[in-house]
Every structure is written in C-alpha cells, then in structure tokens.
Amino acid sequence: MLKVGLTGNYGMGKSSVAGMFKDLGAVTIDSDDIVASLLNEESIKGQIMGLLGAGAVGADGNLDKKYIANKIFNSKVLRNKLEAILHPLVFMRVEGLIRRVRGRNRIIIVEVPLLFEGRYHRQFSRTITIFADRKTALSRLKKSGISRKDALVRLRSQMDIRTKERLADYCIDNSGTRRQTAAQVRKIFQLLIAENRKQLS
Length: 201
Description:
By secondary structure, the chain is an alpha/beta fold. It has one domain: 3-Layer(aba) Sandwich (Rossmann fold), CATH 3.40.50. Helices cover 55% and strands 13% of the residues. It is built from nine helices and five strands, in the order βαβααααββαααβα. A five-stranded parallel beta sheet has the order 2-3-1-4-5, sandwiched between helices. Helix 3 (42-52) runs antiparallel to helix 5. The longest helix has 24 residues, at 76-99. It is globular and about 55 Å long.
C-alpha cells in the first residue's frame, strides 16, 4: 500500500479533494475528524483547560471552540503546546486505522493540515498540496461562517502555500471548477497506482 499525505491551507479544499480520491477507490483518513473525537474525551478537555484556562470549556461541559481559536491563533506558543498534546495521539490513531486496511494495492490518503509545518511528511511515501488563490479561500471560509479577519489570522498562522507547493510531490489547483479539479485528481491517482504497483513488483 502507498501512504500519501494530503495538505493545503484553510479554505483551499482539502476535504473536497480527498472525497474525489475516495470516489476513485482510495482509502481516506481525515486527521481533523480524529482531533474532533479527541476533543470529546474528558482527559483531553482537562489538559486543554490547564493550557488555555477554564474558559476553554463552557457551562455545558463542551469545549468553547471560539475561545480556543482566539487563544491559539493569536499565540504561536499556545498553538504549539496544544499541537504537542494532540498530534502524537492523532498519528497513533492514524496508524491504527491504516493497520486495518486490507490489500497491498490500496492507496491511503491522509488529510494533514500541518503536514509540512510539523515535518509529518516524513511519515508518508508521497505528498500532495491542494492550493487555491487567496480570494477563493477567503470566500469559502466566509461561507463556512468565518469572518475575513479571522480567516486571515488563520491563513497567516500556516506555512505559505507556495512553500508547501515546492515541498510536495504533487500539487492540485483547486481555484477553478470542480470538473477541473477532478481531472487533476484522476491524473495523480493513476500515477500513485502505477507507483504502488512498481513498488510491489
């Protein structure tokens, strides 16, 4: 099997592209879904409260995502400390999911927003960067309920997308139509299949 790390910055369409790979037959794993699951665990909530203060958990016992986002996107130190809590657990669970995959010919696509920032690309055979122009990214984030101001703060907290493009084995331009993006996905998927077959032969 071939393990592929897929990344891109906020609003650039990682999940929609991962869905296209899934439709073609790839196994897809979203690290954000794993994070969401971890954040429901009481032990993790306790660690986050210890890091960010009691305000991190609301009166209903759930994490206050707006409060947390405001804290971590305005402090690199706090963001790094939170990542140090979550990321080892995320990758432990990613590996657990990968072990359940049957078939040596499978292509496994793992969505990892901070693939290059955290140097996690070393855990993958190949990497893909999804990119889009800033106007498109901001428009998508606005539709998801994130203000322009908050969207810009989030984008600035990540590695420049051009750097991620240079570091990746493959790049997909997701600024255009869905059909244009899908054509790029199909081409790269065929290349990944061919590479996996070569490794197995």
